[in-house]
Amino acid sequence: MSADALNWDCIVVGSGHAGSCAALTARDSGCQRVLIVEKSPPEWVGGNGYFTAGAHRTVHGGLHDLLPIVTNVAPEAAANIDLAPYTADEFTRDIMRLGDSRSHPDVVKALVDGSRDAVQWLAERVNVPFILAFHRQAYLVNGRQAFWGGLALSVEDGGKGLIAADRAALDAVGVETWFDTAAVELVADGDTVVGLQVSRDGESITLRSAAVVLACGGFEASRDLRSQYLGPGWGRAKVRGTPYNTGDGLALAQRVGARLTGDFAGCHSTCWDANAPDDRGDRVLSNQFTKSGYPLGLMLNAEGERFVDEGEDFRNYTYAKFGRAIISQPGGFAFQVWDSTTIPWLRKEEYADDVVEKIWGDTVEDLASKLVEKGLQDKDAFVQTITEYNEAARAFQAEQPEAKWDPAVKDGVSTQSSHLHLALPKSNWALPVEKPPFLAVKVTCGITFTFGGLAIDPETAGVVSNATGKPIPGLFCTGELVGGLFYRNYPGGSGLTGGTVFGRKAGREAAKLSGAAR
């Protein structure tokens, strides 16, 4: 192998969105030779980013601020859109409240402060085809598209479109990718990382570089590490995305003295189709296995009991924690249930006939009987739970007839009235489930990524040494491997934005180390 093939200005481990942002920024900042090392084959390019909906949470000034970077809003349609500004304070509060105020404030600030510039860069430099997410984050209410939950941006064709844009931008500037190449060991000279040992085509190769960026995700695809950190029941969780995120970055960094931080017992896990593949995502259906329509209905476990407040908050503030709730239920699965009042509000991309198995019933009793063969253990309890829920929902309606159901706001339509309330409420969107036909879908826990990771300097994305508390020269981190950002829960759309923000920081610092910064 030639000397040129062994020497690089920047090496990025991982071909996902975060790694792509780091590699492109390094190249744009002056690095002439940038290499992405990816242990998957080419057909698995894109890491977990490929399996997302492409949602990016960002600070913004409202509709007028986002219209210039989206491609799916005609001028005449804009007049019928309600999209409020989303401030830095709101973004920060969302991360902190969902994480029990445990998230590292400086890392959160770096993400929030860098978010708007990050999506502008993606739109202008990477040509990411951003759209307003009418299909995911808005409801048509009284003739107007009303956005909710602080999130508005998605990407045309979701993660597939995002990764396609990333790859086109990288190819255009000559960033090279080595597929089927595993990162084996960081090469250090004293306390400084100076390269990376890889395994390629059965050969061990030592590469030299002034900067190595770890962007190879967490450990969600490792059954053993899930059981070790998350608990023994997590062995049965289904992997939503790439099967190649098995904790490599953590192991590599630990061997050079990196500091671990964050919620190693926590992860992003959601309601996932019980019939989805076990150990990897589907490259065709991708994020369509998500089943996020529970705020419109109910979720019951195998024993016929509700176990979460389906209306606790907007879906994008609860979906990343409800997978954990499901996996703790008997059998690790649950049933989502609706009646014909709310079925039309379900997203077709998740609940179309050719996407998910549907179980129908003419009555709640009929539905319960059919669910027995799908795992329901107590059909009488199932019927009783829905009966009691309906009584409580009707009691609220009778007491507060002025309360109007509105899925685009937290409408306060609940199961709690002065003379009848449930021990486990449904706090919003609590319509009776009483109008036939009735629909159920079986769901389980789909794990997306893990929250524990590496400590970083939020200004540089440099990986912090456990011994010194200072960044390890030459070593950087971005994406799902960043620790200390999310605890217990997660505001939807923050991950891809964070990968962009910290990937750009890492890329700029890599150029400085290579002596090529401009």
From TrEMBL:
Domain of life of the organism encoding this protein: Eukaryota
Gene Ontology molecular-function annotations: oxidoreductase activity
This protein's UniProt keywords: FAD, Flavoprotein, Oxidoreductase
FAD-dependent oxidoreductase 2 FAD-binding domain span: 9-42, 88-494
Pfam families xrefs: FAD_binding_2
Cofactor dependency: FAD
InterPro entries assigned to the protein according to its UniProt record, in alphabetical order: FAD-dep_OxRdtase_2_FAD-bd, FAD-oxidoreductase_2, FAD/NAD-bd_sf, Succ_DH/fumarate_Rdtase_cat_sf
Record carries keyword Lipoprotein: no
PANTHER family hit by this protein: FAD-DEPENDENT OXIDOREDUCTASE 2 FAD BINDING DOMAIN-CONTAINING PROTEIN (PTHR43400:SF7), FUMARATE REDUCTASE (PTHR43400)
Protein name: FAD/NAD(P)-binding domain-containing protein
